[in-house]
Design a protein that fits this description.
Blueprint (H helix, E strand, L loop, with lengths): L2 H37 L17 H9 L3 E5 L12 E8 L4 H13 L3 E6 L7 H16 L3 H6 L5 H13 L2 E4 L14 E6 L2 E6 L4 E4 L6 E6 L2 E9 L2 E6 L7 H6 L3 H8 L4 E5 L11 H7 L3 H19 L5 H14 L2 H11 L5 H12 L1 H6 L1 H12 L6 H19 L1
Parallel strand pairs: 1-11, 2-3, 2-11, 3-10
Antiparallel strand pairs: 4-7, 5-6, 5-8, 8-9, 9-10
Helix pairs in contact: 3-6, 15-16
Length: about 400
């Protein structure tokens, strides 16, 4: 193998090696993203799209396996389709969206449906934080001035709206306070209750509990004699509120599944809807979704075929290369001044074309025309009396006469 062969072969090998490495890198990145989506840890905690211990996908699939129809809601609640005989589950809410629930959820429950609202876990308040909070509150009360009074009407409306639901249904939320020398690990983390005469114990990871309950509320689970899971009828339906969402998580379903509690909360409704919009997961209509919704697959396939035919037509001529080049050369030959003159004459043919040609020839050869008056007279006579049927024959005669006296000149 010569040096020139090695030099010409090396760039090809290097190019293939770089392309191979690039493909391996892209494949690894794609596999990483696929695994992340399969695990679902890109989604918030207690989302049914998440398969790790913090998600709730096992709960949704378990209900589906028992014959229930399970759906996920990706539309804002005002736009969502919430049919009757349905149980709506909103797991992992961070705050009580009072206005939305009062305007949408409560009318939905009143039609005979069920709703389960469960909060994300909350850590207990330490003794030191309580002391500091009370001290700061006293300082603020002592420093009320005109500026503070002017800002009172400008309080956040979201906080006021979050209390609407509490006022309508009759409860408040509070948090366990640890003793001065107590840590989070000392907090009792097992909620107890009775369902259909059966005592149950449920692991509970939240320090939030409910207080100032309306008599209509039923305490289902309590932690340290504090209600943590409550429920009440609302017209024809039933609503449940839990201070923790751990019992709905994949970890709880695997380690300590509370089947009796879950079945009791779901009720007899055959349709379960898990809301994902409060996690910030919403459906955005895309082109692919519109195609699937209106069954436009055939139209897209037809447009794709037309695009392929268009590219093929512009890249490959219908004639073979030899005929194509021949046709191009023929077209190039005809695109000259003479062909242009012929086209003009064909579009506007004169009455006596031969006579016009003789006049133009005489104007450009006046000396030769004056030296042979007899020949010129004969030529003009042929041109004036030229018939269309004898046009070619007379043209040949004139050319012969002009050639004869032109040769006499030389």
């Amino acid at each position: 193998m010569t040096d020139s062969t090695r030099q010409t072969g090396n760039p090809t090998v290097m190019t293939l090696a770089i392309l191979l490495m690039l493909l391996i890198f892209l494949g690894a990145v794609a596999d990483l993203f696929i695994k992340r989506f399969q695990v679902g840890d890109l989604f918030p905690a207690y989302s049914t799209l998440r398969t790790d211990p913090f998600g709730s996908k096992i709960l949704a699939e378990s209900f589906s396996a028992t014959g229930h129809e399970v759906r996920r809601n990706y539309k804002p609640l005002p736009q969502a389709s919430l049919p009757d005989n349905t149980t709506l589950i909103m797991a992992g809410i961070r705050s009580m969206p009072g206005a939305t629930i009062s305007e949408i959820i409560l009318p939905f429950v009143a039609r005979g449906n069920r709703v389960l609202l469960s909060f994300t876990p909350q850590n207990p308040t330490s003794y030191q934080d309580t002391v500091e909070e009370n001290s700061c509150q006293d300082d603020q009360d002592n420093q009320v001035d005109a500026e503070t009074l002017s800002e009172e009407p400008k309080q956040n409306n979201d906080q006021e709206k979050s209390l609407v639901f509490n006022e309508l249904t009759g409860f408040q939320t509070d948090t366990f306070i640890l003793a001065e020398n107590e840590s989070d690990s000392n907090l009792i983390q097992t909620a107890n209750g009775t369902i259909t005469g059966v005592n149950i114990s449920v692991p509970w990871n939240s320090a939030r509990y409910f207080s100032e309950l309306d008599p209509a509320w039923e305490v289902i689970l309590s932690l340290s004699n504090k209600p943590v899971l409550i429920g009440r009828p609302w017209e024809d339906g039933y609503i449940f509120i839990a201070s923790d969402s751990y019992f709905l998580s994949n970890e709880s379903m695997w380690l300590d599944r509370q089947s009796l509690l879950l079945v009791s909360l779901a009720g007899d409704n055959s349709l379960l809807i898990f809301d994902e919009t409060h996690h910030g997961i919403q459906m955005q209509m895309s082109i692919s979704a519109l195609i699937r919704q209106f069954n436009l697959h055939g139209v897209i396939a037809g447009l794709f075929l037309l695009a392929i035919l268009f590219l093929w037509r512009n890249s490959m001529p219908l004639l073979n290369p030899q005929h194509s080049l021949k046709a191009q050369s023929q077209r190039g030959e005809k695109r000259d001044q003479f062909s242009g003159l012929v086209n003009i004459i064909r579009r506007n043919p004169p009455k006596n074309l031969l006579l016009i040609c003789l006049e133009k020839y005489a104007a450009s050869n006046q000396e030769l025309w004056k030296k042979h008056p007899e020949a010129v007279k004969k030529i003009m006579g042929i041109g004036q009396n030229s018939d269309k049927k004898q046009l070619l024959e007379n043209y040949k005669k004139i050319c012969k006469l002009i050639k004869d006296f032109s040769m006499e000149k030389h």
